[in-house]
Amino acid sequence: MVDDYIIAADIGGTTSRFGSFALLEDGELFCRDLVHLRTGESGSFTALIQKAEDAFCSACDHPPAAVVLAVPGPVRKGAPVILPNIPFTISESEQERRFLDRKIILINDFAAQGYACWRNQHLATEVIQEGYFRKEGTMAVIGAGTGLGHCAIKRCNEGLPVAIPSEAGHAAFPFSGDEEIRYLHYLLQKEGISYPNCDLVVSGRGLSHLHAWLTGDCLEPEEIVRQIGSESKTTILFSRFYARACRNYALSLLATGGIFITGGIAMNNTFLVNNTFFRDEFADAGPYTGLLQEIPVSVVTDERVGLLGAAECARIRLGNRTAPRQI
Predict the structure, then answer these.
(1) d(CA 32, CA 19)
(2) I need a labelling partner for 183 at 20 to 30 A (CA). Which of 21, 33, 80, 85 fits?
(3) Alpha-carbon distance 226 to 222, whole Å?
(4) 308 CB contacts (<8 Å, ≥6 apart)?
(5) What is the DSSP letter of 16?
(6) Rounded distance between C-alpha atoms, residue 226 and residue 261, angstroms
C-alpha cells in the first residue's frame, strides 16, 4: 500500500458522505474509512472539507493527493456551482487557491455515479432485466430521489470513460391514456405549472403526489412504501412511469452498454422497479422492443455509489493516462 490517498465526497442537501480511499500500488482503490457530516452545519464548503480532512488526517501525516466533490446540478469549468437546498456555493478554483497542496475536483453527482457503474467493482446491484452488454455501447445511469438524475458514460479511444451529465429530469414527462391524462390535470392544478417535468413525476414527491391522487392520503414516500404492496395501484403506475423515463433515456442514447438505476427510491425499494409492470413498459416501443429487451438493466443497491464513483474519477485524473472528459 502506498502513502497517497484520496478524499471523496457525495454532497447532499442534508448529509454529505465522505470517504478516504488509499491508492494501492497496483492502481486500485481501497476504502479505509467513511464519515457522514451534516452539510449545512459547516457554514461554508471550505469548513466542510476541513472537517472531513480533520476526521481522516489523524491517521496520516500529510494531506490527500486529491479531494473530489460530487455535487448536484450542472458543473461548468470556472463557474461557481449553486447547489439546491444548500446555503452556500462552491468554486473549484476558489477551493484550489485555499488548498494549494492538493488537487480539488468538482463533478456532477450523477457523473460520479456513472464512473462507479462503469467501474462496476464492489458495487452491489440487483438484476431487473438480463441482456447483452455491449462493451462499445453507451451506458445510461438514471435515478430517482429528490429529483430524477441522469448521466451517460461512453468509452473513449483510450479506453477511459467519458462522463456526460444531463438535466433531462427537467424535460416534460410524457403521459399516455385517459387515466394518465386525468392525473396530468391533477398535477397541473396541484402545482400551478404549465407542464409536469420528469423530476415531478419520477421522484419521492412524485410518489407522494401519485399516491394522494389514487387514495386521498397525503403521505411521505417512506410511509407510502411501507403501506403499498407489489400489486398496488400506486406501485403499478409508479413502476410504469419509472420505466418510461428509463426507456426514453435508453432510446435517446441507444444505451446498449446497459442501464443502471440508482437513487434512494429504487435502491431502498427494489420492488418498485423489479417487476413485470416495469419490464413490460420499458420494452413497449413498437419496432424497438427487441432492442430494448436486449439491454441489461440493473438497480444499484449500494449507497456508496457516489463515493466510489468520485474516487474512481480522481484515480483516473491522478494517473498517467488521459484524464476523463466531462461534457
Answers:
(1) 7
(2) 85
(3) 7
(4) 8, 19, 29, 31, 115, 116, 119, 122, 123, 302
(5) E
(6) 21
Which residue type occupies 33? Answer: D
Distance CA 124, CA 311 (A): 17
Residues 323 and 316: beta-carbon distance below 8 Å: yes
Q: Which residues contact 150 (CB under 8 A, 6 or more apart)?
A: 110, 140, 141, 142, 165, 166, 167, 168, 169, 249
* Per CATH, domain 125-300 is 1.10.3210.10: no
Grid look-up 427510491 returns 265
In 3-state terms, what secondary structure has residue 134? coil
Per CATH, 5-114 and 125-300 having the same topology is answered no
Identify the CA nearest to 209 among candidates 224, 229, 227: 224
Tens digit of pLDDT for each residue in 278-311? 999 999 999 999 999 999 999 999 988 999 999 9
Domain extent listing, the chain: 5-114, 125-300
Q: Angle, nearest 10°, between helix axes 109-119 and 305-318? A: 80
- Tell me the three cell numbers of residue 298: 440493473
- Tell me the Ramachandran region of residue 83: left when phi exceeds 0, alpha when psi lies from -120 to 50, beta otherwise: beta
Count other C-beta atoms under 10 Å from residue 140's C-beta. Answer: 28
Query: Rounded to an integer, what distance in angstroms lies between the CA atom of residue 53 and that of residue 113?
Result: 22
Cell of residue 159, nine digits: 479506453
pLDDT digits (tens, 9 = 90+) for 59-103: 566 777 888 889 887 787 767 777 666 767 776 666 656 655 567
